Structures
1.
Amino acid sequence: MHAATAGLSLGLWLLMAAAEASPALHVWLHGGSIPDNDDCAVVAVAHGNLQVITNDAPAVVPVLGVEIVPRVVASIFRPAGVFLHRPLIIKNPSHLIPHRPAIL
C-alpha cells in the first residue's frame, strides 16, 4: 500500500514538473487555453506554494491477535450460602467420641 501511494505521488509530481517545463502540456491540461489568473497545481508547484495538510486523528492499528488466558482464583473464604441453613445442635456428643478402652 505504501509503495502504491509513493508511486502515485511520484507520478503526479513528475506530471506537474513536466507541465511546468512544457507550456504545450500545461495548455492541454487546461483544455486548450490558460486563464489569466492561473492558480492551478502546476503553477503552485512551480512557485513552491504548497500547503501541507496534517491529520490530527491517530491512525487505527488493527490488532493481529489477542491472547486470552484463563485465571484460576482460589479463595480461603467460604461462600455466604453455607451460612443460610440452621446450625446443627448436638445435645449429647458422647456418641460421637470413639470409645477407647482404659489403659491400666
2.
Amino acid sequence: MKKKLSLKYQARKRLLKNLLSSLILFEKIITTEALAKELKREAEKLTSEIKKSKNKMNEVRVARQYLYGGAQQKLIDKKESFRGVSSYRINKRRGDGASQVLVQIELKESKVQKEK
C-alpha cells in the first residue's frame, strides 16, 4: 500500500520523481525512513520495467515517466548493471529526531573494474 506522506498527490509524485532522479545520478542518498520505503518501492519497480522493455522507445518512455534530466540517460545506459536497491538505517536527524536511512543502488561490477 502506498503511503501519502502527508502530501497531496502531485507534490508526492514530484518528490518521488526528484528522489529517484537523485538516486540514479548519485547512486546513494540519505533520506527519512518513510520516504526511503516509498523510494525503494518505486526504484525496484522502475528498474524492473526498464530491464524487461524490448525496444529503445519503450525505455525512453518509462525513463521520462519516472525521472528528470540526466538521470534518464544514465538509467538507460546502465540498465544491465543494476542489481537492486538496498537501504541501511543510520543515525537520527539532529533537529527533529527523525530516523534517517541511506538508500543506495547496487551495481554489478563490470569486467573493466575487475581487471584493475
3.
Amino acid sequence: MKITKTQLRKIIKEEISRLKEGKYSDAPLYRLADVARRDWKKVSPYAQPYLDALGTLDDINDKYMFDSGSSIVAYFLSNARSWKGAIAKEVKKELNMRLKKAR
C-alpha cells in the first residue's frame, strides 16, 4: 500500500502530538524504533545496526546479545545525529531521559 504525501503529513503530525503529550513515555523501545524507522527516510549506515537492535528491546534494562539496552540506546543516539525534525527531536529526548534514569 502506497501512502500519499497528505497521509504521511497526517501520520507525522499525529506522531509529534503523541510524543509531545508523553504518550511514548511508557512505550517499549521497539515502538520508538518503529517511529524512527517511519520518520527517518535515509537511516545512517552507522545508526542502522543500533536501530535494528533497538527494535528488539522492550526496556532499557534488557540485553541485546552481549550489549546492555542502555549501551544500545547510547550508541544509537550518538550515531543518529543526521536524523532531524520534530519527531527526531522528541524521540531523542525520550531516549535521553530513559538513558539518564538507567544510569
